[in-house]
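Subject: for your reference before the review

Hello V.,

The reviewers asked for a structural picture of the protein, and I figured it would be easier to keep everything in one thread rather than splitting it across files. Below is the amino acid sequence we used in the manuscript, unchanged from the supplementary table.
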Amino acid sequence: IGAIRYSAQNILSDSSIDNNVLILGAGSAGIQLESALKFTDKYKVIGFLDQDKKLHGKLISGKKVEPLSKMEELI
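And here is what came back from the structure prediction:
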């Protein structure tokens, strides 16, 4: 959790640039990262990627969880 917060702090402290982001992992760490990124104009979370088939198609904060196999297509 500390590493996620440290990474988010570094991301949030940089200048404003609008970039779409996919978060790898839809577990608690991914959800925390998405929550932190809501407070910046630099990054816009557009979805989640996860290996867990039970999570595919679910929504987290209105953003869909996709399988890792769709990464290239989404990028």
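For the response letter, the relevant points are probably these. The mean pLDDT is 86. The first strand starts at residue 19 and ends at 24.

Happy to draft the paragraph if you're swamped.

O.
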